[in-house]
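Hi V.,

You were right to ask for the full record rather than a summary. Here it is.
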Amino acid sequence: MEQLRQYVINADTVRQADGDTTPPLAELVERGDITWPEAYQRAEEFAVHRQDTVQRSRQALHLIAENWIVIQNLAARPDTSYARDILDGLAPEVRSLAQALMTLT
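Predicted structure:
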């Protein structure tokens, strides 16, 4: 049982450090809302979800880095028909992101 408890407390620490504002799992156990095995299961689910999210985020950042040349090219000639043709074909949120990134180069 002590291993379950420690795993849950460690997961709560990571969740809190990540900015999670929900009640800690250990607190839910202490209040009697869930059991330690249930808290352990939730902590494991959190760990798997977090690792998947971290991996997807890394992959997305790799894609951005691999394609950064596109942003640099747009930033080098922002007021050209080339840039307008690219930006005009984007969804508004993507266009805004591209324009924000162009200011970083």
